[in-house]
Design brief:
Length: 111
């Protein structure tokens, strides 16, 4: 399983191929949203207050681009609110199961 490493301030973050693919899909989605609006990369970059090079990195799904830059792109398309569904407790099946187990243990100790 090939992994991609990203170094941020002397710390290495390893992205699995799956995570790399998710980033690329996000970048492609942002690109499609830009093209649907007939915006050039230069025009969108100006709206985002970033360089054209940074926008190109966003559209390629580069993991080294700041998360806020991706959010700024999504916000231009009124898609920023969708980010609230990432890691939402109601979608975290494992987390829900673990909370349930913790609650059961706490009830047993309380009785």
């Amino acid at each position: 399983r090939r992994q991609r490493q990203l170094c941020i301030r002397d710390r290495a973050i390893t992205l699995t191929p799956e995570l790399t693919a998710y980033m690329q899909i996000l970048g492609q989605n942002i690109r499609e949203a830009r093209l649907a609006r007939n915006w050039t990369q230069a025009a969108m970059a100006e709206r985002m207050l970033v360089s054209t090079l940074t926008l190109k990195k966003v559209e390629s799904g580069a993991p080294g681009v700041a998360f806020g830059t991706y959010l700024a792109a999504l916000d231009l398309f009124d898609l920023g609110e969708q980010i609230t569904q990432l890691a939402a407790p109601h979608t975290d099946i494992d987390g829900s199961r673990l909370r349930l187990m913790q609650n059961r243990r706490a009830r047993r100790r309380a009785t």
